[in-house]
Amino acid sequence: MGLIEIYIQEVTRRLPEKNREDIALELRSTIEDMLPEDYQEKDVKAALEQLGSPAKLAYGYMDRPMHLIGPRYFDTYVSLLKMILPIAVTISLIATIATFITGYDGKEAIMNIVFEIIGFGISSIIEVGIQTFFWLTIVFAVIERVDSSKGTEPLSQGLQKWTADDLKNITYIPKKKAITKVEVFGGLFWTAIWGTVYFYADHLLGVYEGESQELNFITPAVNQDVLLQYWPFILAIIALEVGLSIYKLIQKQWTKGLAIYNTVLQIIVSVVFVWIVTNPNLFKNEFTVYMTNLFSITEVQLETWVIVGGIIIFIVSAVISIIDGIRKARAN
Amino acid sequence: MSSLLNSLTTELRRGTLTLAVLSQLRKPQYGYSLVQLLEQAGIHIDQSTLYPLLRRLEKQELVTSSWDTSESRPRKYYVLSDFGVETFLQLKKEWMENSNQLLALLKGDEEDGFN
User: pTM of the predicted model, to two decimals?
Assistant: First the structure.
């Protein structure tokens, strides 16, 4: 008798309360039906083995799904996850960096701050990633269980049944023209980084000397006052760059309009860069002296190196970006 | 039997089990008597599949159940409801048509030299 009782308990403990008694009664009578008149323990074992694992039998009785997210919602779930995750991660990264910069008191060496930002950045990426994944999964698991429509057709992204008309809302994107999410969010991230460097250049750009574990900031490279004269242009460029990233995110592929936008932006950025970098008061005297001593070159040589080198690198990368955009926009 | 063949066979049979069970429930049956009836007809059904299936059919109102306590041990009897009979006849017709079509397909195969 013992084994039968335990078996029935193993089945019913997995079932909703209201069904337990009835199923237990039916199971017991079934098991007894299977046994011969004078049964031994081995007969009981044989009968129970025929019924199979209690867990399997219990799950057979339950209407609840045995999966977290079924085929009906899986595609919608994955699409949403792919869409939300990079956005959440980028926002959290930018927020982390902004928090550090606005809370900067100017005392700590900037390289140490950079390492701290990297550390916090990584942990915030992981945390936001896990949070997003967790909550989205929970929401879909709940939807899966409360959906009483009993449909089995997978749903499209709008949570409607798929029709051929859905195809009209999707633009065909050839691989050659496609803009990846990495490109979009990388662009946004780059804007955040150089924007930060611009407004805090006197803390960030300059000469560092390593001194037993710590990096010490010796002298800034630029006159922040001179640099900040250009702030309205910089702000405009930041706005235009963010606009470009959002435009890319919406279009998902290179178009003629996007290529024109990119070309105009690259030209504006190059002009402003050359304008700023050729300002004779831009570099601090201390910096120029330090560098000329370090490399034993004249002031003129140094300025030629830094300014001409900077301008060449900048313009070459701008031209590459313009050509790349136009080429992709024209590709078929 | 290879495991692939095994899973394909299971899949083939799965849809027919409901029909097989419904066909035997014109007269009231309890769980184990149904197992034996089906076994006699050469149809093997896992008991862990059958008992939950009976409950599901009851929930779908295709069968009704009643406890018989007059014998030595209480037994739960299942029998087709009116709706169940109607559904069963339609399913049966569906199955006959399907198997005729499939038979024609398979016969065509044999004529082409496959076996």
Answer: 0.57
